[in-house]
Amino acid sequence: MAGDSEKFYKHLPGKEAYALIDKYPVNGTVSVYYDPVNPAVAALER
Asked: Which one of 1, 7, 9, 24 has the fewest beta carbons within 10 angstroms of its own beta carbon?
């Protein structure tokens, strides 16, 4: 998954990418929202 994140961040302007990364620190606890019928569809924000 880390590779997918890196690809995503490359498409954001620098400040926006860093702001998004700062919201989700390594080893931090986050809520994850997902479709119980298709758990491959998931998001960190709604």
From this structure: 1
pTM exceeds 0.85 for this model:
no
Q: What is the pLDDT along the chain (46 residues), one digit of tens a residue?
A: 444 555 555 677 778 878 888 888 889 899 999 999 999 999 888 8
Domain that holds residue 7: 2-43
Task: Write the CB contacts of 33 (distance below 8 Å, at least 6 apart in sequence).
Answer: 42, 43, 44, 45, 46
Distance CA 37, CA 14 (A): 35
